[in-house]
Amino acid sequence: xxxxxxxxxxxxxxxxxxxxxxxxxxxxxxxxxxxxxxxxxxxxxxxxxxxxxxxxxxxxxxxxxxxxxxxxxxxxxxxxxxxxxxxxxxxxxxxxxxxxxxxxxxxxxxxxxxxxxxxxxxxxxxxxxxxxxxxxxxxxxxxxxxxxxxxxxxxxxxxxxxxxxxxxxxxxxxxxxxxxxxxxxxxxxxxxxxxxxxxxxxxxxxxxxxxxxxxxxxxxxxxxxxxx
Length: 228
What we know:
Blueprint: H1 4-7, H2 10-16, H3 20-37, E1 44-48, H4 56-60, E2 65-70, H5 73-83, E3 88-92, E4 105-111, H6 120-129, E5 131-142, H7 147-157, H8 171-177, E6 186-191, H9 203-212, E7 220-226
Parallel strand pairs: 1-2, 1-4, 2-3, 4-5
Antiparallel strand pairs: 5-7, 6-7
């Protein structure tokens, strides 16, 4: 991963979530994150790849004390400004070598940062390591099976620097990365069952149907496990 890769995306990243479709993506992704993570007031949480703090804000609003790490100084600066005075602390660090002692956090989460890491096992081991025993880890990615991932892979092939070297994974591939995973104690779920070009007014019904059918083909994959 290269720090400079994300530095010029700060404004564009935030603007995407203000578009009609982007707002709905944010709504459904945040709901799934909070459902799996279940943050509690006063708990110590780590947000790995916090970016501009878009999703961190939802977790902080639950009363958790959140440390956010990111490789990009410009993105981290926005996060600190957005979350200032809310119990948030930010620092630059790499998810493959977290600068924290074993068991430092009650819960750890990471929103699509693993997409930019080739060695997923190493990254997952680090997230597990810094979580206390009996704590919760939630990691999300873009589903390799879906049209959103296919579009971004094509964008990368066409020369887009952000998506030129990206690693999307299926729910099964994500399960396999969990340290010591037998699969039984790992929960997986997906969201974003609509396409980017679907009419915003049709999206709630599409998403509701996907959730009712418990489809594993949603563009957004989230896995959760409790550390042992």
